[in-house]
Every structure is written in structure tokens, then in C-alpha cells.
TrEMBL record:
Enzyme Commission number, as recorded: 4.1.1.20
Example GO molecular function: diaminopimelate decarboxylase activity
Name of the molecule in the record: Diaminopimelate decarboxylase
Gene: lysA_2
Species of origin: Clostridium magnum DSM 2767
Signal peptide: none
Length: 302
């Protein structure tokens, strides 16, 4: 698979020395002029942007380390094999999505390019993803802000006419384009709390089970206000809780709840734990077309 990918000219970002050893063992089968190899860079971003990376004080587990000399050794090995390094992959996972992070990533790419005289062979720099986007939020960077800080740095080492900048803005593009529609299938009262169960799961919106107050709308038209309601998914996981509502209209079986800006994980990180992945519909003006149907209609089972 890797050899076919390389020989077809697809971008392959090597992540570790095992990847490089596979290339080395199979060098006689490779069309060197077709190979489009990049290196996934690992460096201490947390030191530059304290408190901002997902890994925190631990090391990031991805990429080839700069500080211990592995990055330089990988360049040497590829050169000996007669293969050019065409790209740098700089993706990091962060908590903040800040401008400072992307400035640091771009600057590190520039430092490496200048230090190892890579400008002539580079054709792409993949800066990764993790942007704010989809809609403009107060006090959050826009794509224009990100673009400026990244490009201002990269222009110190490469020409935009020769080197392609690759972004991975998946979530920031499609998160606001998708709504997730739930239906209420059970309402019960436990002590002073009303538990409202829906025919979906927090797993579909947040596979890591981190609850936040999602933006939502509903067709619930009850005039009765309930002091405390918890909207829960239909799994056996206690943490499967989607909304905490106070003094909100009373939900009843059959009511619909729409979660907005639900495109982050609703399509790509589904599993079949208790519930099948939700159906996916595309809306075209006033028409809906079902493009995925792996779900079970729970109401028909009741």
C-alpha cells in the first residue's frame, strides 16, 4: 500500500523511523522521481506556548523529534537513498487554537528550512488544523488572522509561488453546516429531576463524552415550566448527558430537539455501541435526501 502510494505521487508524511525503514527496504521498487515525501515534525511546542498543547508537559507522541537529532538523521537517510524531502508536516493538537500556536508552527518550519537548506526541494508545508471557524466568534481568530500570521512567517524562507501551503480545517468548515435531530423517547422523574431520554447519544456529538451546553432548538410547545431537566442519550453510560436545563418547557415523548453546529464528530466518529450511527440527510432548498441510513428507529421498538 505504501509503495503504491509513493509510486503514484501521493503525499506521504513519514512519522517515525519504521516508516523510513520500510522505504529503505523497498527502495529498488520505488520510482524516485514520483515520490512526494514529507516529514512529520515533532518539537517542543509546549515550551514556546505554555499550557496550550493537548499533551501539556508530556511529549506529543507524533512525528520525528527535532531536539534529539532524529529529524536531522531522517534527512540524512533520505538523502542517502536518493530521495528528496518535499514537505514538512507541522500539525499539533492544541487546547486554545490560538494565533500564537500557528505563528510558532510556521516559525519552526522556517527555522528548519533555513538550518538544513531545504528551500530548493520543498513543494509543500502542511501547517495542520485546529482552527476556530465555521462562524465568527467574539475575540476568536478568523481564517484571515491565521492566514496572515502563517504566511508572514513562511515568506521568510520559501516562495508562495513554489511551495504550496496545506491546511486541514475540517472541523472549522463543517461543524456549523450540520444539525443533529433527536426525538424524545422517554420522560421520567427521579426525585427532583426530570430525565428526558432521546433516541441518540452524546457519543455522536462528543465521542470523548465531554458535556457542554450545546446550541439547540425544539418544537416543544408545552407551557409548563420544569425546574430541572436533564436531556440524556439512550445508552447505558451514566455520563451520556447532553443538556442541563432549568425552568424550561416540559418535554414529552415525540418532541424533537435539534442540536446546531453538530458537524464536528456526528459523521466521522460514530460507532455502533447501543445505537447505530445516525441517518444523514442533505437539505436542498426544501427537499431532504437521505445519504446514509445505518440507524434503528427506536420508536418502532417501543
Amino acid at each position: 500500500m505504501l509503495l503504491n502510494t509513493l509510486n503514484e505521487g501521493s503525499i506521504v508524511n513519514v512519522d517515525n523511523f519504521q516508516d523510513l525503514e520500510i522505504i529503505k527496504r523497498n527502495i529498488k521498487f520505488l520510482k524516485k522521481e514520483k515520490c512526494n515525501i514529507g516529514i512529520h515534525v515533532n518539537f517542543d511546542l509546549e515550551k514556546i506556548c505554555p499550557g496550550e498543547t493537548i499533551s501539556g508537559s508530556d511529549v506529543s507522541r507524533f512525528g520525528i523529534c527535532v531536539e534529539n537529532g532524529d529529524f536531522e538523521r531522517s534527512l540524512t537517510l533520505l538523502k542517502k537513498l536518493g530521495l528528496k524531502v518535499h514537505g514538512l508536516h507541522m500539525h499539533y493538537s492544541t487546547k486554545t487554537r490560538s494565533i500564537a500556536v500557528f505563528k510558532a508552527l510556521a516559525k519552526k518550519a522556517v527555522d528548519l528550512i533555513l538550518q538544513y537548506k531545504m528551500a530548493d526541494s520543498l513543494t509543500f508545508i502542511d501547517i495542520g488544523g485546529g482552527f476556530w471557524g465555521g462562524k465568527q466568534l467574539p475575540c476568536k481568530p478568523t481564517m484571515k488572522d491565521y492566514s496572515k500570521v502563517i504566511c508572514d512567517q513562511l515568506k521568510n524562507a520559501v516562495s508562495p509561488d513554489k511551495v504550496q501551503l496545506i491546511l486541514e480545517p475540517g472541523v472549522s468548515i463543517h461543524v456549523t453546516a450540520i444539525d443533529y435531530l433527536y426525538r424524545v423517547i422517554n420522560v421520567r422523574v427521579i426525585r427532583d429531576t426530570t430525565i428526558v431520554t432521546v433516541d441518540g447519544s452524546l457519543l455522536h456529538n462528543s465521542p470523548y463524552m465531554t458535556t457542554k451546553q450545546f446550541a439547540f432548538s425544539t418544537n416543544c410547545n408545552s407551557a409548563l415550566k420544569i425546574p430541572k431537566q436533564i436531556i440524556c442519550g439512550s445508552t447505558c453510560i451514566e455520563k451520556d448527558r447532553l443538556l442541563y436545563l432549568q425552568n424550561y418547557n416540559e418535554f414529552q415523548n415525540g418532541d424533537l430537539i435539534t442540536f446546531h453546529y453538530a458537524g464536528k464528530y456526528t459523521i466521522c466518529k460514530n460507532n455502533c455501541f447501543i445505537n447505530c450511527p445516525p441517518r444523514i440527510y442533505i437539505k436542498d432548498n426544501d427537499k431532504y435526501c437521505c445519504v446514509r441510513d445505518m440507524s434503528l428507529d427506536l420508536m418502532s421498538q417501543i
